[in-house]
Every structure is written in C-alpha cells, then in structure tokens.
Design brief:
Elements: H1 3-10, H2 12-40, E1 45-52, H3 55-65, H4 71-77, E2 82-88, H5 91-102, E3 108-114, E4 127-137, E5 140-152, H6 153-166, H7 172-204
Helix pairs in contact: 2-5, 6-7
Bound molecules: ligand 0O2.
Ligand 0O2 binds near residues 57, 122 and 159.
Length: about 200
C-alpha cells in the first residue's frame, strides 16, 4: 500500500469515524438485547466485542482478494474493516438478534451471510450481517460499513481455536488439525441444538 493510502488509514478523521461507528454498533447490539431480554425474561447477549481491522490485515486481505491496495478500494470492497461481534448462549437467540436489528431503520442490512445453515468449508459457523450505519462528522452524514458477527458461545469457542490455526496454514500437522476441527464443528452444532432443547424443557417446568 502506498504511503498516501497508509496515511489515510492512520488519519484522525478515519479513526474518529471508525470509533464512532463502533460505538453506534455496540449501542445497537445492547438495545436489541434489552428489547429481547424484556420480552423473553432472560439475558440474550452474553458478550460483545469490536475492532477496527489493522492496516496489516487490510493489506493482507487486499492481496489475497486481488484488490487494488488503495484506501478507496479497501473501503469499498472490504466489508469488515469495522467488525463487531455479539455472542449469545443459544442459537435461536442469534436469529432473534438479527431479526430485531433488521427492524432498526437507521441500520442498513446490505447482505446476510448465514454460515450457521451453510457452514464454511473450514466448519466455521456464525451469522454475518454486512451493514451500514450513519455517522455524523464535521457537519456531514456518512454511511459507514461494518460487519456484525452473531454467534453462540460454542461457535465462538470453535472460531477462536480455528483462528489460532490460521497462522500455521500449509503445515502438514495444521492440515490434520483442520480436518479434526471440522469434525468438532459438527459436535458444536449438535451441542447448540441440544442446549436449545434443554432450555425449552427448563422453560416448560
Ligand atoms: P479476521 O482476522 O477476523 O479479521 P467477502 O465478504 O466474501 O468479500 P470475506 O470478508 O473474507 O470476503 O468474507 P467471510 O468469508 O464472510 O469472512 C469474514 C470474516 O469471518 C473473517 O474475517 C473472519 O473474521 C470470519 N471467518 C470467516 N471464515 C472463517 C473461518 O474459517 N474461521 C474463522 N475462525 N473465522 C472465519 P477475516 O478478515 O478473514 O479475518
């Protein structure tokens, strides 16, 4: 990436806008959680986190996807420069969160990627919402793109272990562990299903 593009990523305006977007996204998750918690009588969202993608990670993604390594191209094509995550105990609550967020008119849902119904080849499971949120900066409104990842605690645990493997890509042992992890992704799916069934049995008592 050229130095003028790097400067744009490091600029105060980019950082202020990104951090504002993160605050707005986090508020959206909390508000959706409050609405659902009131309705269901239990807390739905267990954990949230957010990050702005590092310049190194943006550069690596541009290279991997064959995008021009420019600020404009990265901003247009990389959906998860801003990423927020909401983790729920139960799989049906993941979908409930997505449904409530879809009712917010100041959150544009550009695309939904359901890696729960359609897991990735690695075994990765989560519900992704590619979204845009309005940010006001220096008198102007701008829609800022961000990816909301919604998943269960079990999916999050799996994704964390899988993430560690990514840096060992290509090594023979890593390939074998990757295969094993894919099997455990199925175990996680079964556990998620059983947990919902158990909660329903508890609710019925
Ligand atoms: P990091 O390190 O989390 O920032 P596209 O939208 O199709 O143009 P993209 O963004 O690659 O391209 O889409 P995808 O496949 O939905 O991945 C988006 C993010 O989901 C990834 O961001 C990861 O955070 C997560 N993810 C996707 N696949 C996997 C997987 O197999 N294992 C784990 N642990 N996470 C995954 P980044 O930028 O790749 O990574």
């Amino acid at each position: 990436m050229k130095s003028q593009d790097l400067k744009k990523f490091k600029s105060s305006a980019f950082l202020v806008k990104s951090n504002s977007a993160i605050s707005m996204y986090m508020a959206k998750l909390e508000i959706a959680n409050a609405e659902l918690s009131l309705k269901l009588g239990r807390n739905v969202l267990i954990h949230t986190c957010a990050r702005v993608k590092t310049i190194e990670s943006i550069q690596a993604k541009c290279k991997k996807k064959g995008y021009d390594p420019t600020f404009e191209c990265a901003m247009e094509k990389i959906n998860d420069i801003i990423g927020v995550r909401g983790v729920c105990s139960f799989q049906d609550d993941v979908y409930r969160m997505a449904e409530v967020l879809a009712t917010h008119q100041d959150l544009k849902i550009i695309k939904k990627k359901d890696y729960i119904q359609h897991p990735k080849n690695s075994g990765y499971r989560s519900l992704h919402l590619i979204t845009e949120i309005p940010i006001y900066f220096q008198g102007e409104m701008e829609w800022i793109r961000g990816e909301i990842q919604l998943r269960t605690t079990a999916m999050d645990f799996w994704a964390g272990v899988d993430h560690q493997l990514r840096y060992k890509k290509g090594k023979k042992e890593a390939v074998l562990i990757g295969r094993e992890l894919k099997e455990y992704s199925q175990v996680v799916a079964e556990l998620d299903q059983k947990m919902v069934e158990m909660r329903e049995r508890i609710d019925a008592i």
